[in-house]
Structures are given as structure tokens and as C-alpha cells.
Please model this.
Amino acid sequence: MSINTFSKRTRPEIPFANYDAPVVQAAVDQRRQFFEQKSARLYRIEICYFVAIEGVRSKSGLVAAFRQLFHDPSGALNELKT
Model:
């Protein structure tokens, strides 16, 4: 079984770092202003997939279930039910 979740958010926050080099910081500041002007048309999409895999139970039979009865009674009863 797999589950897909989808999320869309408008006006995402875009992280920017600060730099010591003045030329680099000026370019980053210019880019930040550009994205702030376009923020109304920007959005962020997140897609998450979840996959659940069910394990297979072993069916060892009555003899093994009765042997298991002395050291694991609840497990033996579950084995008998299966």
C-alpha cells in the first residue's frame, strides 16, 4: 500500500546566506529583491510518498506451536490462530 500526499504553498520563504565579499553580497541582495518582487507568483510544492510493506507470518504448524507453548504462550496461541 502506498500513500501520496501533495502540498502546495504560495509565497515561499527563500533562504539566502550572507557573505563577507561585497561583490557576492551585492549579487545576493539583488537576487533577493528580484524574488521578493515575484513572490506573489511563486509557490513551493512538497510531494511525500509513504510505502507500507506487510511482513509474512510463518505458519509452522500445530507441532511447532505446541513446542512454543512452554516458552512463549502468547506466541503459540497466535500461531494456532493463524
In short: The beta strands are 2-10, 43-51. The radius of gyration is 29 Å. DSSP finds three helices and two strands in the chain.
